[in-house]
Amino acid sequence: MEELTMGKALEITVVSLVVVFAVLILLMLILESFKYFFKADIAAQEAQEKTKNQKLVDQGRELPVTDHQVDKETEMVAILTALIMASEDEQDKHYQVESVTLIK
């Protein structure tokens, strides 16, 4: 069996790292290209969701607001729960809470 020198071991290590990173970059490029291939499908889905959401808003009714005091922890739990529910179907979206209103 051939004896492995330090230079040969270093060469194998560098070549292996280059191969691994090249494969990772190739996979990243393939995954990124999916955005461009399926862009029309995503746009159509977003348009459908906007019309669906608009219908829900149009059908909505004004709910009574009470004057209860809510502590910050309860408010934060409500905000996080609402954001989790809103992002269940679409993890790529970003939501911003504009106001918090207690309804009963």
From TrEMBL:
One of its GO terms (biological process) is sodium ion export across plasma membrane. One of its GO terms (cellular component) is plasma membrane. This is Oxaloacetate decarboxylase gamma chain. The keyword Chloroplast does not apply. The lineage of its organism: Bacteria, Bacillati, Bacillota, Bacilli, Lactobacillales. Signal peptide: none annotated. Keywords: Cell membrane, Membrane, Transmembrane, Transmembrane helix. GO terms for molecular function: sodium ion transmembrane transporter activity. Pfam families: OAD_gamma (PF04277). It is found in: Cell membrane. InterPro entries: Na_pump_deCOase. The chain crosses the membrane at residues 12-31.
